[in-house]
Amino acid sequence: MNTFGNNFKVSIFGESHGPALGVTVDGVFAGIPLCEEDFYDDILRRKAGASGTTPRIEGDVPEILSGVYEGHTTGAPVTVIFRNENTRPEDYESFRKHPRPGHADFTANLKFGGYNDPRGGGHFSGRLTLGIVAAGVIAKRMVHFANIQANLTEVGGSANPDSWNALLKAAEQDGDSLGGVVECVAEGLPIGMGEPFWDSVESKISHAIFAIPGVRGIEFGDGFKASAMRGSEHNDPFPEHQCHHHDDPDHQCCGKHKCQSPPLTNHAGGVNGGLTNGNPLVFRVAFKPTSSIAKAGIPGRHDVCFAIRTPVVVEAMTAIVLADFLR
Ligand SMILES: Cc1cc2nc3c(=O)[nH]c(=O)nc-3n(C[C@H](O)[C@H](O)[C@H](O)COP(=O)(O)O)c2cc1C
Predict the structure, then answer these.
(1) Any bridge partners for residue 282, and if so which?
(2) Ligand 1: does its nearest atom lie under 6 Å from the Cβ of 276?
(3) What percent of the chain has pLDDT over 90?
(4) Cα 103 to ligand 1 centre (Å)
(5) May I ask the CATH architecture of the domain 3-221+268-325?
(6) What is the spatial distance between Cα 50 and Cα 291, in angstroms, rounded to a whole number?
(7) What pLDDT, in 10s, does the model give residues 150-163?
(8) Ligand 1 proximity of 52 Cβ (cutoff 6 Å)
């Protein structure tokens, strides 16, 4: 559905070419300083304008409608909206009859009996991630102890940033598009965040990340490479002499004392048994190449590589999941 989370509930609403879109967040602690300007930095990071991004530029001005009084959250649901200004719904009129490849035009039309809003993908548009970024700003304040940073690490299969502009230009000239990879690292997490089984850290992060339109894969730590490693390579050993209760170097740990140190290496990406282990949480997200391409005769204004705009969305999703783990 359109709501995610148990303790920190994030509900998104709106359409790409409707009057507005936004987010309602329930479970926000009272007393967090919050005003509209607090959203600007992260909103700017998602905005189009950089090379390889769509020419559709929106104001993306946040309006707080509820849950904030005299500059602080009140404990009531926080609603933030963004009015759409730069819409061109006529670009999308034909999509009911001729669904675009790689979009929700076909599936949503059949599922909702043709009542779905087709303009620019309607509720399925990447524009809805603006509300996610807003929820992420609030979530980051809830998990203020964490330092969450996501960065673009690959464009069009290349990990060399110096090559990206030329790759983007070449794809654009061909009327084509490129995918990308975003790596996210969250430091400062306490040991033991996450819940057993269904709500493991990887499960919840993956759930949230796959809600971002255009995600094709996620891997934690060594990820898919782990399957080709030996246990001796992939294991993350704990520091020796973990008892720390005496200075005898020959002492074998009796197991009765808690080891408080995280593993020495981080092939697991900071998670053991679905719980954070004190090492940085590390995962990578694969984004597909933009589906709407001139080569396929698709009108409208599109990102050559929308992955460029997603690191802040990945950060937001991470913060939302971590905030949901707070009790
Ligand atoms: C920030 C962002 C911007 C996007 N911009 C575009 C775009 O300009 N053109 C396009 O075809 N897809 C774009 N997408 C991807 C589509 O929204 C997505 O492929 C589509 O909704 C179908 O979802 P799926 O790929 O997960 O099946 C964007 C996604 C995000 C997260």
Answers:
(1) 185
(2) no
(3) 84
(4) 8
(5) 4-Layer Sandwich (3.60)
(6) 19
(7) 999 999 999 999 99
(8) no
